[in-house]
């Protein structure tokens, strides 16, 4: 009764929120293709799964000999439980039913005598026959490589440059694949979706073919970002690259480190926009299936088979949603759920359970612990995708209220602080600069006093709009209170950040504000800029350095962008 009520409630709730329903998110043909694709994972896991059947057979042999010990009985129950929860995902629905029947036979409290062994033996034989056959309608498919690093595809015939890019990318935790011409590149893209493509326009055969490839990748959903690295540098070339969806134009010759700087900026933006799901299950087949289903949808999956490491991984990865198995060794998913709900930092994260048992008692325990939803094992791809997508979409709506400044549309202090701290850790690992700026509107109190708070709000909104337009999606733009704004610029050195802020100041000075009485006026701001790690190795130190520089800018007469101490001299707009 409970599952039916919850499904109906979810259906009704999805209508005003415009969340996708199962039929809307996966057309029947796509759902069938998805099921077949998951079935294609079977060759990778067949050996391990048949190994679980062997444990059940060992327990059955011990039963027939009258020597079934409690430890082996518990092991057989656990292995049968995992079989019931995983093999159905590969297309073995009957095998999943048989495994569940075997699990029940080995449960504590069940009557298990030698006389029942012959019947149970037939069930186990039927299970093995099912698993040794090919799943009905299965398709050939391959699991994405276990290498979880982002993939950079370099399309360039310059072998020397390519080799240096491979080395530089490896030092930054990026896997690089090479294509010496466009046909090789297309073959690779047909097999593996790259995270970023770096392409030369100077191929002998046809620069238009390179542009066409860029256009095709930009049209994907989600698009694959493409950077151009070329000796051509005419305005027409730059316009064509922008028209086709290119995300950057790099002119040769260029040091590999600088090319990788641009790649890392794109990857940082991609990772920042990705939804992250942390899945905890002691069955590696279930974890692999989740990665296979979700990652093509631009949902990053962090898998964990050791529940005792849960808190460490949760803190390090900051996921947007948790997927927990109910029954695991050492710690159950229900216990982990209670721990999460008791922590104020994480109590709001959506939690979805996977369970092989959907009886009323298990469902009641799951929701009493604080779960948002559950999916019954074996995992059905289209259903799981719909449930997770709906939860992530709802979480995004909630975050937009909690993390965004309602007046200006930029991040609030809480959200930006979290993101900036992540960027500082990334900058430290990747040895990349991070510039941090503090902006303060000049004489803002006088604007409020002279023209009223409604006009003051108009000025704040416009500054938020100008900042969002001026900075990249991966940059952090936030309002920290009153007329104070901050900007974090990953991969940007101090002097470049000062120049960028100066350009924003010049653009903002051109804005014309009009009072209700028709009076027009202009507004300026002052800013201080600091750089990690030059002016501090944590956010608090960076803030102090940038705030000192802001004070110097105000002291010098406002309307200035001032670098922190030991940096080059002030740049004025």
Layout: helices, strands, pairs:
Layout: H1 2-17, H2 22-25, H3 28-39, H4 42-64, H5 70-86, H6 93-106, H7 114-132, E1 151-155, H8 159-171, E2 175-179, H9 182-191, E3 196-199, H10 207-218, E4 226-230, H11 235-243, E5 248-251, H12 256-273, E6 275-280, H13 284-294, E7 299-304, H14 310-317, E8 321-325, H15 333-341, E9 351-355, H16 360-369, E10 373-376, H17 381-403, H18 413-430, E11 434-441, H19 444-451, H20 453-470, E12 476-481, E13 484-490, H21 494-509, E14 513-514, E15 520-521, E16 525-532, H22 539-555, E17 560-563, E18 571-572
Helix pairs in contact: 4-5, 4-7, 5-6, 6-7, 8-12, 19-20
Description:
With 573 residues, the protein is of the alpha/beta class. The protein has four domains: 41-132, Four Helix Bundle (Hemerythrin (Met), subunit A), CATH 1.20.120; 151-272, 3-Layer(aba) Sandwich (Rossmann fold), CATH 3.40.50; 276-401, 3-Layer(aba) Sandwich (Rossmann fold), CATH 3.40.50.2300; 413-572, Alpha-Beta Plaits. The protein is 53% helix and 15% strand. It has helices at 2-17, 22-25, 28-39, 42-64, 70-86, 93-106, 114-132, 159-171, 182-191, 207-218, 235-243, 256-273, 284-294, 310-317, 333-341, 360-369, 381-403, 413-430, 444-451, 453-470, 494-509, 539-555; strands at 151-155, 175-179, 196-199, 226-230, 248-251, 275-280, 299-304, 321-325, 351-355, 373-376, 434-441, 476-481, 484-490, 513-514, 520-521, 525-532, 560-563, 571-572. Helix 4 runs antiparallel to helix 7 (114-132). The model is unreliable at 1-30, 136-146 and 567-573 (pLDDT under 50).
């Amino acid at each position: 009764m409970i599952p039916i009520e919850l499904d109906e409630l979810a259906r009704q709730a999805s209508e005003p929120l415009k969340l996708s329903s199962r039929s809307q998110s996966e057309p029947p043909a796509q759902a069938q293709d998805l099921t077949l694709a998951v079935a294609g994972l079977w060759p990778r896991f067949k050996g391990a799964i048949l190994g679980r059947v062997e444990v059940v057979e060992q327990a059955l042999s011990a039963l027939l000999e009258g020597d079934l010990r409690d430890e082996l009985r518990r092991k057989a129950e656990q292995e049968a439980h995992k079989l019931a929860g995983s093999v159905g995902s590969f297309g073995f629905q009957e095998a999943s039913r048989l495994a569940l029947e075997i699990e029940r036979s080995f449960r504590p409290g069940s009557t298990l005598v030698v006389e029942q062994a012959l019947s149970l033996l037939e069930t186990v034989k039927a299970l093995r026959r099912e698993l040794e056959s090919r799943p009905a309608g299965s398709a050939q498919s391959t699991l994405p490589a276990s290498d979880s690093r982002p993939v950079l595809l370099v399309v360039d015939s310059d072998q020397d440059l390519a080799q240096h890019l491979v080395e530089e990318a490896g030092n930054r935790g990026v896997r690089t694949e090479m294509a010496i011409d466009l046909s090789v590149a297309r073959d690779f893209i047909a097999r593996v979706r790259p995270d970023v493509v770096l392409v030369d326009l100077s191929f002998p055969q046809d620069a238009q073919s390179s542009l066409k490839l860029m256009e095709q990748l930009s049209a994907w959903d989600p698009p694959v970002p493409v950077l151009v690295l070329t000796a051509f540098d005419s305005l027409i070339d730059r316009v064509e690259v922008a028209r086709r969806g290119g995300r950057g134009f790099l002119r040769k010759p260029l040091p590999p480190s600088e090319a990788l700087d641009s790649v890392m900026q794109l990857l940082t933006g991609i990772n920042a926009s990705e939804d992250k799901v942390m899945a905890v299950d002691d069955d590696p087949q279930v974890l692999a299936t989740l990665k296979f289903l979700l990652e093509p949808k631009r949902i990053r999956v962090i898998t964990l088979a050791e529940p005792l490491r849960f808190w460490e991984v949760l803190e390090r990865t900051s996921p947007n949603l948790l997927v927990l198995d109910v029954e695991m060794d050492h710690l159950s998913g229900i216990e982990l759920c209670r721990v999460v709900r008791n922590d104020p930092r994480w109590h709001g994260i959506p939690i979805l359970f996977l369970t092989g048992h959907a009886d009323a008692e298990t469902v009641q325990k799951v929701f009493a612990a604080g779960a948002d939803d559950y999916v019954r094992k074996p995992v059905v791809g289209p259903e799981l995708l719909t449930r997770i997508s709906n939860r992530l979409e709802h979480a995004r709506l909630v975050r937009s209220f909690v993390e965004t400044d309602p007046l200006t549309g930029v991040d609030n202090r809480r959200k930006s602080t979290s993101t900036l701290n992540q960027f500082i850790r990334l900058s430290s690992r990747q040895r990349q600069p991070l510039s941090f700026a503090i902006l303060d509107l000049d004489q803002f109190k006088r604007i409020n006093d002279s023209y009223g708070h409604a006009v003051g709000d108009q000025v704040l909104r416009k500054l938020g709009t100008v900042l969002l337009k001026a900075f990249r999606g991966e940059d952090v733009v936030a309002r920290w209170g009153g007329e104070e704004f901050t900007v974090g610029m990953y991969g940007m050195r101090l002097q470049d950040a000062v120049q960028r802020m100066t350009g924003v100041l010049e653009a903002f000075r051109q804005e014309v504000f009009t009072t209700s009485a028709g009076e027009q006026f202009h507004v300026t701001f002052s800013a201080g800029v600091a750089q990690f790690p030059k002016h501090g190795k944590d956010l608090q130190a960076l803030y102090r350095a940038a705030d000192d520089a802001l004070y110097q800018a105000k002291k010098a007469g406002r309307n200035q962008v001032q670098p922190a101490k030991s940096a080059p001299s002030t740049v004025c707009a």
